[in-house]
């Protein structure tokens, strides 16, 4: 018998990853639709096709699952490689890629539903959910873009005195009027052509505002 033969993978490892993914998929669909209070761990377990014990083996409580669902949803639309200028080429191209991913994220049905839920929750004044959402989603995106803008300034592609403030400005400009209209259920769906015009105009305006200063 060959004692050095390769052993098969340990039992349950791929299944554990599949179950975790199923739990997160269920959470990403249910939290925006049913709200935090209206979504139980039992319901998530049932939707994911796993036991409640399995859910708790991956996520210690509902808040932890909520945070991870937000983080993963953001990374699906805005993966870390989007913010790598060396991979994506010129800074304009990089910003366009980020802008398209971000706009697609914020106008999705899941994101609109989640924002409405958080706004309603914030009116109660007692929940930690808005802060948890901010730290798991928007804050992480802002910080990642901030690093990109600082790097582009160091290499002379941009002149951004305050990358933190500029990152917030960029994302707010991309949201534009349409995000607010979607949020309150007003107006017709935006077309792909209009989306691209909006994104390109914002990116070009941003680049003009932070173009490198001419040396006198």
UniProtKB/TrEMBL annotation:
Matches recorded under PROSITE patterns? HTH_TETR_2
- Residues in the DNA-binding region are 40-59
- Describe the location of the HTH tetR-type domain by residue ranges: 17-77
Q: Which GO terms describe its molecular function?
A: DNA-binding transcription factor activity; transcription cis-regulatory region binding
Q: What is this protein called?
A: TetR/AcrR family transcriptional regulator
Q: Which Gene3D superfamilies match?
A: Homeodomain-like, Tetracycline Repressor, domain 2
Which keywords belong to this entry? DNA-binding, Transcription, Transcription regulation
Fetch the Pfam families from UniProt.
TetR_C_7, TetR_N
Which PANTHER family is this protein grouped with? HTH-TYPE TRANSCRIPTIONAL DUAL REGULATOR CECR, HTH-TYPE TRANSCRIPTIONAL REGULATOR RUTR
Tell whether Lipid biosynthesis is among the UniProt keywords: no
| Statement: the UniProt record of this protein carries the keyword DNA-binding | yes
């Amino acid at each position: 018998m060959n004692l050095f033969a390769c052993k098969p993978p340990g039992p349950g490892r791929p299944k554990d990853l599949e179950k975790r993914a199923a739990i997160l998929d269920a959470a990403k669909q249910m939290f925006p639709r049913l709200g935090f209070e209206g979504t139980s761990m039992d319901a998530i377990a049932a939707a994911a096709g796993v036991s409640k014990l399995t859910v708790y083996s991956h996520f210690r409580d509902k808040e932890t699952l909520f945070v991870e669902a937000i983080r993963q949803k953001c990374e699906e639309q805005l993966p870390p490689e989007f913010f790598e200028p060396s991979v994506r080429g010129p800074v304009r191209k990089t910003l366009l890629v980020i802008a398209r991913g971000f706009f697609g994220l914020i106008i999705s049905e899941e994101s609109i539903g989640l924002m409405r839920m958080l706004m309603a929750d914030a009116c109660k004044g007692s929940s930690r959910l808005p802060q948890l959402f901010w730290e798991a989603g928007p804050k992480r995106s802002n910080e990642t873009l901030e690093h990109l803008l600082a790097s582009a300034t160091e290499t002379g592609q941009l002149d951004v005195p305050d990358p933190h403030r500029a990152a917030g400005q960029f994302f707010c400009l991309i949201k534009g009027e349409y995000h607010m209209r979607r949020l309150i259920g007003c107006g017709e769906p935006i077309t792909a052509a209009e989306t691209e015009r909006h994104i390109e105009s914002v990116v070009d305006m941003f680049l003009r505002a932070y173009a490198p200063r001419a040396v006198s």
